[in-house]
Amino acid sequence: xxxxxxxxxxxxxxxxxxxxxxxxxxxxxxxxxxxxxxxxxxxxxxxxxxxxxxxxxxxxxxxxxxxxxxxxxxxxxxxxxxxxxxxxxxxxxxxxxxxxxxxxxxxxxxxxxxxxxxxxxxxxxxxxxxxxxxxxxxxxxxxxxxxxxxxxxxxxxxxxxxxxxxxxxxxxxxxxxxxxxxxxxxxxxxxxxxxxxxxxxxxxxxxxxxxxxxxxxxxxxxxxxxxxxxxxxxxxxxxxxxxxxxxxxxxxxxxxxxxxxxxxxxxxxxxxxxxxxxxxxxxxxxxxxxx
Amino acid sequence: xxxxxxxxxxxxxxxxxxxxxxxxxxxxxxxxxxxxxxxxxxxxxxxxxxxxxxxxxxxxxxxxxxxxxxxxxxxxxxxxxxxxxxxxxxxxxxxxxxxxxxxxxxxxxxxxxxxxxxxxxxxxxxxxxxxxxxxxxxxxxxxxxxxxxxxxxxxxxxxxxxxxxxxxxxxxxxxxxxxxxxxxxxxxxxxxxxxxxxxxxxxxxxxxxxxxxxxxxxxxxxxxxxxxxxxxxxxxxxxxxxxxxxxxxxxxxxxxxxxxxxxxxxxxxxxxxxxxxxxxxxxxxxxxxxxxxxxxxxxxxxxxxxxxxxxxxxxxxxxxxxxxxxxxxxxxxxxxxxxxxxxxxxxxxxxxxxxxxxxxxxxxxxxxxxxxxxxxxxxxxxxxxxxxxxxxxxxxxxxxxxxxxxxxxxxxxxxxxxxxxxxxxxxxxxxxxxxxxxxxxxxxxxxxxxxxxxxxxxxxxxxxxxxxxxxxxxxxxxxxxxxxxxxxxxxxxxxxxxxxxxxxxxxxxxxxxxxxxxxxxxxxxxxxxxxxxxxxxxxxxxxxxxxxxxxxxxxxxxxxxxxxxxxxxxxxxxxxxxxxxxxxxxxxxxxxxxxxxxxxxxxxxxxxxxxxxxxxxxxxxxxxxxxxxxxxxxxxxxxxxxxxxxxxxxxxxxxxxxxxxxxxxxxxxxxxxxxxxxxxxxxxxxxxxxxxxxxxxxxxxxxxxxxxxxxxxxxxxxxxxxxxxxxxxxxxxxxxxxxxxxxxxxxxxxxxxx
Amino acid sequence: xxxxxxxxxxxxxxxxxxxxxxxxxxxxxxxxxxxxxxxxxxxxxxxxxxxxxxxxxxxxxxxxxxxxxxxxxxxxxxxxxxxxxxxxxxxxx
Lengths: 291, 754, 93
Known about the structure:
By secondary structure, chain B is an alpha+beta fold. Chain B is built from 21 helices and 28 strands.
């Protein structure tokens, strides 16, 4: 049995060096640890090196900068939720963040961790994608940006290469008369994993017609999936019941869910439509209320 | 016994004596003990639902540095079949032994096949992975349907169906057939104006206690053993360790820790005998703590069932016939609570013609254990759902239908005996008058009611009451506190002694410091141990009066005890003699005759049944099938609520568990018989935000055989919710759900099929 | 004389008789008297059935007194566990 090492670097460069030097697959990044520790305890992973990034300033904090809300990758969700800029600009992302785990878990869990854990059911990933969020990654070759939509490549796997880690998330501020919404279905009211999640962002013109939209589903495929057909059903409409219905049908068609004890394939397909309709209606109502 | 008496302490709500410890984390639970030189034990469990164990090689594990000892079924003594008490019922020690450690066969995913003890838990875990087990996988059965089907794989070659006459000689998975009933069923159905017939299924569920099983055992070559563990029955643990390991009962001491929930699941042994055996062999203390996954796979959940009900009634609602067929999963060894289910399901109703047939069926799942009113919740689910359908067919209000048929004092119970004073009618009337029934329902909402019955147990208890030199009292008993009983016992002692309840110190003792006690269970502790405490306290009061009499030089009859002091009466110079307080008499005890204390051991008689009526409102999302409980009221007869706050807590806790049973909880197995959801994420119990505040109403119809009228209350509350929720969903959606749980995919599928 | 009431499950051993009067002072004597009247019923009752006297369910009731006008019922064992293989020695499973 190997013993495990713990490092707590204070700079991006230091973290990159530690991760690059470690043998492939032997190191894990620690932010809140709410997925990492659980997986270690059930024996799914057995890292030899833990790199705690919470002392690195670039991974902390939340502030508006250069037209985007910049969220440190290791920032606790509870702290993030208290930022007035979050609810003000991205009520859907705020909704998604509020759904993570529970109050206790949110005291540690981070959006960065939620993304890097790459669960098909991650709540904040669809919400980030519909907002066009970007992931800022640091590595041996320097820093690079990747759209969150491309970050996750499969269950548990991401585009992060050897020596790379997620530093922050950049969420562009919304255009006028734009708003987002996120809904998920769970059998209980909290402390549960999404059976289906649906994120919708819409932009309306002065007359209330939808000029832009994005629809992303979670928990119904190996990764979050964007449904352009659902967005197309909304664009050009006034988000009336017929348009919402068509968007819902597109969501059902796009699903590729599995049968598991949380939900059957048939159930997930049906609920994907219901949540997409409801999220789109909510986003539209919010967008209409914004100048 | 009269209810006219005015109580000073009984019926009040002091903060429980163990409260501060529990909310600050100071309380010591099963896993909180450690000893010098202690080893860590771990259990290797079968990954197969049914398999012959061809060979086990522990040598590679023993070769690992730090591993001190390893055991398998070969190290467990072979013992003969013998019945013993566990919880409210009986078990066969030989089968307990085989459940604790497999012998020739592994009978469920999670069945222990070996155990090790090592210097650290990491080494112990690694040691398990080095044990080589050769299995011959066998076909398995998971449900009563599969197990009862002709040609089904057989778990126990020797098992024959008891209760059939003659006992057949074919191997079977049906361990027993029982039948209770009376009257003429055919005639009863013939005279009925309406008949309702329905079939129901429920799934295996777990008690869901937050604290996993944990034990530290210190044993040696001299056969002396000390066992620290969380348990509902320290004397049961002692008896089982003794029987299973061939030790003397008197050489085992069991010290119960604080217990983080049991609900019947901690009334037998799982890892305790293994810890003792490992400790004996290693010569060092051994600690075993179950993981949450192990609790689900390797403790004692509650039976899944299939139940058929047929009811007949006249147009005015009078039941003329009730028939039921029940099949209960026993798990890997015989002994499900099908009998209690049969006894309770129609018990609230006076119906002349009854026949209930029940089957105890073994399946490749963990051996079932008691879960709060064991056997009754699924059976009542079936009976109360059928009654709801009957009410609809008759066009009758569901409360009225039950009132028409409700049992009263003098009614003959379905299972035979006549009832003494009972509160079935009173709880129904309280429901009828409750504002909940009159509240308006919104869209997609529905309301259901259901009743429940549990007979409650008496059984054996011992307690002692001792007066301390400063006038405070210590009350010692032997039943672990799972519901606030410690404080209730203190209240009873305070009442009898006439002192402030905060001056009474209630203590849960170990098996060497108090006389024999049956386990905490059967809703019996406040009732039975309470009786022992009251008797002892009254004896102490008599001794105090004797001391006062001798101090004053008067006769005993001239001394009265009131409000914590001795008063002269009946011509004993009342004007001249100052009252003697308990504090004064306690200080002078040494000089007036010695220490003042009393102890009582008894088998409590006259346990009174507790009836309940629950009202449930739900809202069903027709597009997702999610069922939300939006209002819930639990009304139950407590006889006399000693501590109303803890009685209410029992009502709410049982309701919460019953709601979970109805909506989302179930054991999920794959096609190989491997448990898929051994964790709280996917074994879905309600969390606090899932439930509204559960309103409670305490009805008091005193139990005539108890000094204060106390009835046990802990178990009845889990019985009505399954049907109350299902009836509410029926009301909201028009769909009758006979298969639990009503999880969202199940509900949506039925709604869409409407 | 105590009255014994037989549930339908036991009536197969009494030829359909539902209630009888028995002269006995304790449960052991009562069961013996019943077995004389209905041969074989003693073994069925003795294999773990619980006894209820005047409404009270009593475990291990053999030496329990039977009141002169008492009513006695027999119930299948409540906690489950008594089975057809009682009397056999260690099972091979």
